[in-house]
Amino acid sequence: MQANQADRVHPYLTYQKEFTPYKWYKPLLATLAGVGFFMVFTVVLSIFGFILASNQGYDLTQLLTGGYDTLDAYTPLGAIMSLGTVAVMLPAVALGNRVVNARPFSSVSSSRGGFDFGVFFKCFVVALVLVGLPLALLNLFSGENTGVVKFTVLGFILCTILAPLQCVAEEYVFRGQLMQMFGAWIKFPVIPILLQTVFFALSHPYNVTGVITVAVMGAVLGVCAYITNGLESGCALHIVNNMVAFYFAGFGFGGVQSEVAVVDLIIDVVLCALYLGFIIFADKKLGWFSRVKKDDLAAFNAKIAAREQARQSQA
Questions:
Q1: Domain annotation covers residue 5
Q2: Which 3-state string (H, E, C) describes 14-36?
Q3: Rounded CA gap, 158 and 84, in Å?
Q4: Is residue 304 assigned to a domain?
Q5: With contact defined as beta carbons under 8 Å apart, do 260 and 269 qualify?
Q6: pLDDT tens across 185-238, in order?
Q7: Residue 306 counted as domain residue
Q8: CA atoms of 165 and 187, how far apart (whole Å)
């Protein structure tokens, strides 16, 4: 028995092509509009940050130009400038798509009717067990305990809020907006996945080994989005990976550095492979990603049709 149209999960990479207003150039317009909003938000945050920094005697220039070696996710101002300036990419993507109005923002989240928090929390638990726990144990027994707690109380709170938003924002930009844009233009799924991987890797100021490590993570996150037709599984892995790094560094267990060792690359490859393997299993055997929350495609197209009909009746 064939599934109803409303119950069918549409391919994520080409999903936006099924919305009535789609034209080949509209994904690019939405992306450029998002970049514009991001630049405005970044300028506003930077002005705010420099004002606060001048009052507190804080060297904000070193923070912004020193890469990961001067990363500060542990104090209020540091968390705002290091994490908040990335997190604002999320509303920028939403506003970019709203301005162009070629599809609903829910279609960036998934082709299953928006972001499914049930799927996200299941994937989050899996990411904690398969990735978070091993990384935590490696940090505990690495012998890099400095004994210096970098977190302030407010810095810890802001890091806990902003770091997940920073991870989600990167998913919406790279695995969402960019990968779907390339997917609308290019027939073969491997190419959009590889293109967003390149952009994602180059956006991180690591050494060569670090960039390769980020590329591996970006490729796995891209495949996760492709397999699950949404961003929930990638958001879960990304949040767990980053939060372990920030928390352990903030409490004096090593630090986030621009120089990444080969052994860290190997560990990340193994853990990412474990997680991806489970996601494939959850898709094929558990059916985690087959549920359609709502038919946002039909609803959006109906709204566009009604608007066009009203316009024609007034003409």
A1: no
A2: CHHHHCCCCCCCHHHHHHHHHHH
A3: 9
A4: no
A5: no
A6: 999 999 999 999 999 999 998 999 999 999 999 999 999 999 999 999 999 999
A7: no
A8: 31
